[in-house]
Amino acid sequence: MISRKAPKSKFKYIWWGAVVVLLAVGATIGPGYLRNVFFDGFSERTNEPVLAFFDTEHPSVSSAPANISHYTLYWKNTSVRFNEKRLAAAMNNGGVLITIETWLKNYAGGGDTGNPLEATVNGKFDHNIAALGSLIAKSKYIVYVRWNPDMEVPVSQYPWQFRSPGQYIAAFNYVASRLKKIAPLVKIVWGPSGFPGDTEFWPGLQTVDMVSITLGSFSEMSSDAYPYISKLPQMLALKLHRMRFIKKPVMIIGAEASRATTFDSNWLKQQYALRQQYINTAYSAQNYVKDTVNKPRRDKLSVGVFDPNSRLLHDPNVTVEHIFTDWGEIERGEFITKFNAIIARRHAAVVTMEPWRDTSKVADVNVLQSTINGRYDALIKKLYSVISNCGQTVYLRFAHEMEIPIHRYAWQSQNPLTYINAYRYFMLFDNKTHAKNIKRVWGPAGDRGSADWWPGSDVVDFISIAIYGLPDKNITDPNKQEPFSTIFNRKFYRMRFFDRPLFITEFGVKGPENYQRNWLKGAAATLNLNPAVFGICYFNLYDNPKAWGHIKAPDWSISRQNMAFFCKEVNK
């Protein structure tokens, strides 16, 4: 008979041997090493105090909250437990905010290259969730839980940054739903920094009780992706503006950028006053997000071109022409000539109105505010007199690509609220006699944070985005261009709050003819799968050389053969 005791005895020796080795290693490296590996970390997050609440539904509670302590709970997949006594003591000493950070390695040492979001939905932190939930359920005070904050900031401070929104949302809801099941009274806080593009990571109404913004988080200050705002009132205003889609109270958290300045409650009063001022427009309840948005579906895709050299516009499949104009062209009569030529060809027109370059030859650096102030009223009136009731559909686009943080156009890098007011002023100019042939087009590029400039469904018939193959202006190799589908899916997702169809008013690809044909074939396949896109216009020209610096501007032009091929593919 084979004895079964020997293997058990052998395993016992191996196990104890491993313990001795670990103790020896711990003694060598430092007394805190084993604790850091096997125990969740817990510390007071003194550098990020809770400063105030902002609640448009209940303004009276938006004062500095009393006695809300802020702690960090570090979850590691190597841990077996955390110091429950310290955490329980903190919870029973008043209201508490717990920010959870999930790591797959040593949080103190950094360098975590794993994916904690994937690990979360695979159950790696289930025991952490259960242990925390049981403690929260016993607390007699309100416990706020914020999980993996600053997820939207494009830096690598945390291992959950630079992850897809869908993956973050799935992991967030996994944790939140399980915590709520164990501790129903827990307050789940969705914790973006308030950086452009934050709402791409919005997890939905079901699991979120409150959102938070951070005034100058370390993540945000480390990013060069967007101009940093040093003045706290302006920073607060912009971050609260980005939360206008979310019907939840906002927790305002301090950080490094705000430590030297005392938070002023008058800043909140100013924000409440602003919301009352624009309660029917920028801050209308109509903007609140819903869990699902149903976009209209097309019957047939309209195909058009921006083709100033007239190489493609005579293709029988082309039914739309795109032109750009400005105040000067309207004053000199050039716009009327270009527009009437389109109407004579019985084509619909996309008119992109660039509100600058009038005949005064004096640059207006405040074109949006000047529009609101009525400086260009006579020209706007002249424009509408030309395009109204002309016998063809006119897609009117105003001050496009406003969200890109550059200064190519005078209306870029401006206050979103100023843009919204200018857009609405322009689009509602002929509101009393609004011609039915005019379709109002809101025209972001579709870049990060484009939702900040959303002007409201009442002044938008179509959303336009731009899709060009080159993902970066430092890339000149056409083979490094992104596929149409990759760009489209990224930008289409950013429009998920809005119930309006899309019209892609600009798209293009550079490179050899065969490469362009394959790219266009992929574009057609993507469009055939997305009925929310009603129209698309190819940009058949080279780009503006001034926008590309020392690099040669890309030439997006395609042949007549490739245009015919695209039209055939897209109408299969």
Q: pLDDT below 50 for ≥5 consecutive residues: which ranges? A: 1-8, 18-23, 29-34
Distance between the termini: 74 Å
Q: What's the structural domain tally?
A: 2
CATH architectural grouping of the largest domain: Alpha-Beta Barrel
Determine Rg (CA atoms, Å). 28 Å
Strand portion: 15-25%
Provide a count of the helices. 17
Q: From the structure provided, what is the oligomeric state, counting identical versus distinct chains?
A: single chain
| Major sheet description | 9 strands, mixed
Task: Please give the CATH class of the largest domain.
Answer: Alpha Beta
Could you tell me the CATH topology label of the largest domain: TIM Barrel
- The total of beta strands comes to 18
User: Helix amount, in percent?
Assistant: 25-40%
CATH homology superfamily of the largest domain:
Glycosidases
Shape: globular
Strand order of the largest sheet: 2-9-8-7-6-5-3-1-4
Mean pLDDT: 89
Give the class from helix and strand content and strand pairing: alpha/beta
Family: Belongs to the glycosyl hydrolase 26 family.
Organism: Mucilaginibacter pocheonensis
Keywords: Glycosidase, Hydrolase, Membrane, Transmembrane, Transmembrane helix
Protein name: Beta-mannanase
